[in-house]
Design a protein that fits this description.
This protein is of the alpha/beta class and 410 residues long. It is built from eleven helices and ten strands. The radius of gyration is 22 Å and the shape is globular.
């Protein structure tokens, strides 16, 4: 216990590396523990321990997580609405079956044959072309796409001339692959299973070279996640291979076997709101692991299902942030426990606590990009606008949040 707070954690019922799902093979009860039961049981037991040790129940309970932790956060709000008073859900993998099906589809596209793979040396070429086409769309050239949905980059513009192949262009097969990565996953009837990746997330050590394309065919993180999911949870066949992935059949089987345990797509948060719960969602527009549009779509579904949703939920889309952090934009705002300001305008956990405990809803917040790990040298500050508002440059120092206003977005 520190500062009046008690923290708890769980392995959700299994041990192993983040990309090892061998524990799930033949163990549907462990999949349920991983999907939702582990976090809920951890919470129940923690409350009992706190009551026994301190002689009183916790005044308020908070949950914060990103990626699969963001999925867990939404699962708590949807399935166990009385567990927590305040929830911070970042880059949630809440559409688990769709996301891992997308990973299988993308892996298949990149490994269809030797000509389909986009090697690491060409990622910078794609990123530079995206910036050339789209960086100025938001009114300022700063290496950050304010809303990548407005980017109209055409991969064909960097296609190699006939017979040519170099690091400075893409072959026709690679252009086709890139269009698939941006296009997302659809079934044979045109139904979107999961949104695709947005332009702008390609470069950097934590970009596409790590998550999507990988150092060699089939060696990306998302390829590993796809294999772990389909081999151990869906097909229960260690010899599963993405090259034999059939969208319609695979998605149908995945949804039948794991939707109940793993997906956190329910937009009905009325029980959570009735409990007095407050939810803050966030996602980096430059996420190379979980397409950012997925969170926007979920938030819009929540608004459609809950007429008073703005009284208990907020969404912040963060320009230039990759998966749960990093990237060219300003991305430090209290999500990682790193050094930095603790006031509610600069620290999202403080903002969530203020909303829960004082009834003050968060508005425009400020994110920072630092030049050092100690967070003492500021490189950039930017306003984070509550979606659907977006920041617009109005003149002045480009790296100063005061040079931007929050305006109505699309």
């Amino acid at each position: 216990m520190r500062g009046g707070n008690v923290a708890t954690a769980t392995d959700t019922g299994h041990t192993g590396s983040p990309v090892d799902a061998g524990w799930a093979l033949g163990h549907p009860e462990k999949v349920a523990d991983f999907g939702h039961r582990g976090i809920h049981e951890m919470t129940r037991v923690a409350r009992a321990v706190i009551q026994a040790h301190y002689g009183k129940a916790p005044q308020h309970s908070y949950f914060a997580g990103c990626s699969d932790g963001g999925r867990e956060a939404l699962m708590e709000a949807q399935r166990y609405p009385e567990d927590y008073d305040g929830i911070l859900a970042g880059a949630p993998a809440n559409n688990w079956t769709g996301l891992l099906s997308l990973a299988a589809y993308d892996t298949q596209a990149l490994t269809a044959d030797s000509s389909s793979f986009i090697p690491p040396a060409k990622i910078a070429t794609i990123a530079n072309a995206v910036n050339d086409a789209c960086d100025a769309v938001d009114g300022v050239r700063d290496g950050v796409l304010n809303d990548p949905r407005e980017c109209r980059f055409d991969p064909a513009t960097i296609q190699c001339k006939t017979g040519e192949d170099s690091e400075k262009c893409l072959t026709a097969a690679q252009v086709s692959t890139l269009n698939k990565l941006y296009g997302g996953l659809h079934d044979s009837h045109g139904r979107e299973i999961h949104a695709g990746y947005l332009p702008g997330a390609e470069p950097g050590e934590a970009g596409w070279g790590l998550w999507i394309t990988g150092p060699a065919p089939g060696k990306s993180l998302m390829a590993a996640f796809a294999y772990g999911y389909f081999a151990n949870m869906v097909d229960e066949n260690p010899k599963w291979d993405a090259r034999s992935f059939d969208v319609d059949a695979a998605v149908k089987k995945a949804e039948e076997k794991t939707t109940a345990a793993l997906n956190a797509n329910d937009p009905n948060l009325k029980p959570f709101a009735a409990h007095g719960g407050k939810l803050i969602l966030y996602h980096g527009w430059n996420d190379p692991a979980i397409p950012a549009r997925n969170t926007v779509e979920y938030y819009n579904h929540v608004l459609s299902s809950n007429p008073t949703a703005d009284t208990f939920v907020r969404l912040y889309m963060i320009p230039g942030m990759q998966h749960c952090g990093d990237g060219p934009g300003a991305h430090t705002w209290g999500t990682s426990g790193a050094p930095g300001p603790k006031d509610p305008q600069h620290n999202v956990m403080s903002a969530l606590e203020q909303w829960v405990e004082k009834g003050v809803a968060p508005g425009t917040m400020i994110a920072t990009r630092y030049a050092d790990d100690e967070h003492t040298k500021t490189e950039m500050t930017r306003p984070l606008c509550a979606y659907p508002q977006t920041s617009k440059y109005r003149g002045g120092e480009v790296n100063n949040a005061a040079s931007f206003d929050c305006v109505k977005g699309k």
